[in-house]
Design brief:
Elements (H helix, E strand, L loop, with lengths): L2 E3 L9 H9 L2 E6 L11 H21 L3 E6 L9 H10 L9 E8 L5 H17 L2 E5 L6 H13 L9 E3 L7 H6 L3 E5 L8 H11 L4 E4 L11 H11 L4 H16 L12
Helix pairs in contact: 3-4, 7-8, 8-9
Bound molecules: zinc ion.
Zinc ion (ZN) binds next to loops.
Amino acid sequence: MEFIDPHVHMVSRTTDDYERMVRMGCVAVSEPAFWAGYDRGTVEGFRDYFRQLTGFEKKRAGWSGVQHFTWLCINAKEAENVSLSREVIQMIPEFINETGVLGIGEIGLNKNTKNESLVFREHLDLAAKLKELVLIHTPHLQDKYKGTRMIVDMLKERTDLPPERVCIDHVEEHTVRLARENGFWCGMTLYPTTKCTPARAADIIERYGDERIMVNSAGDWGPSNPVSVPDFIQEMRRRGHSEAKIRKVVYENPLEFFGQCQRFKIEKRK
Ligand SMILES: [Zn+2]
C-alpha cells in the first residue's frame, strides 16, 4: 500500500533506508527540522542545515523516487539559547518559500521550561504572520501530559492560528484526547521501545476514529525504524480493517493536512 511518512528525520538515515521505504510503498516523506546530535553554536549552522533540508536531502530522496517535504525551526532542545533561537527565527523567512517547505516545525517543548515556552510562542508568532502550518513536538514520557497541556493552552490563547492548521505530534493514549477535542490534527509515533507501538496506534484508531490522525516513524538518531508505518498497516489488516480505512490514515490524512500549504503538491506516479 502507498503511504506517506509525515514525520521522519531522513538526514540521520541512510540512502538504503530510502530504498527500503520505497520498496514498502513510501511515496513521500516530511522531515521536520530538529536536533543535529549536538547543539549548534551559530545561526550559520542552521542556515547550512536548512540548505541541506531544502536542497541535497530532497535530491537524495529523489534518487529513490521518494518526494521530500520539510519544516523549519530551531527545536526545543536548543531553545535554552534564546538569543540564537531568535536569530534562527528571523532567518527562517529566507527559506520558507523554497519548494517542499510545509511550514514551521517541529516546535514545542522538551523539558517544559520557561525559555522553551518563550521560543515556542515566538515561532507561533512567525507562523501566524506568514500564515504557515505548524508541526508540534510533545515531550517524552513523564513530561508528556504536562507539556501537551501547556502547548494546548498556549495555542488556545491564539485566534490567529486555526487548530486545523496545527498538528500535535507524538500523542499517546493519555494525550490524544487533549489534541483532538481542541480541533488539532495529531500524529502517533511508532517507536520500537517508547512512544507508540503499531498495536497501540491501532488501538487508538479503534477507540478515537480515523479523523485528523496520522502515523509516523520519526526515524532519527536513536533506535527507530523508518519502515514502521508498514508495520502499522499490517497490524490494521490483521485486525480486519478495510484497505480504505488504512489508506485514509497512512496516505489521505497526511495529504489533507499538508494540502493546506500552497507549496504542497504530490506528484502522481505514472
Ligand atoms: Zn521529530
